[in-house]
Amino acid sequence: MEWGPLSEWVTASAEIAAVIVALFLPYYDEHRKSKLRTRNLKLFLYKLVHDILTKRDPEQIKNLESFLKLGYLIDDNSNDEIIFVVGNQILLELNSDQDEKITNQKVKKLLDQLELERS
């Protein structure tokens, strides 16, 4: 049995590698986009909550509420659901009649649950 020249083996290996890359590249890109979207949602939630805690502006609380409602409705990634659940818990804490210091502590603990990557 003849195995053929080395150049044919190299060409065949390169073609197989090209097919593998072509098949799996879209999945990798989608995964990367999903991770970036999740990170951006977390950072945006952090920014909204941080603005609320520093300014105590009722308009900021309305912005947070709108973000949570719209985000939950248009979200198609089940991995992002925890962001909206924690966001709603934060909203409940902010709307409660507790002492401001206690509310701030609870809100910060809830934000820590999101494991924010701050850069």
TrEMBL record:
Recite the UniProt keywords alphabetically: Membrane, Transmembrane, Transmembrane helix
Tell me where the transmembrane regions lie.
6-28
What name does the UniProt record give this protein?
A: Uncharacterized protein
Give the species.
Answer: Bombilactobacillus bombi
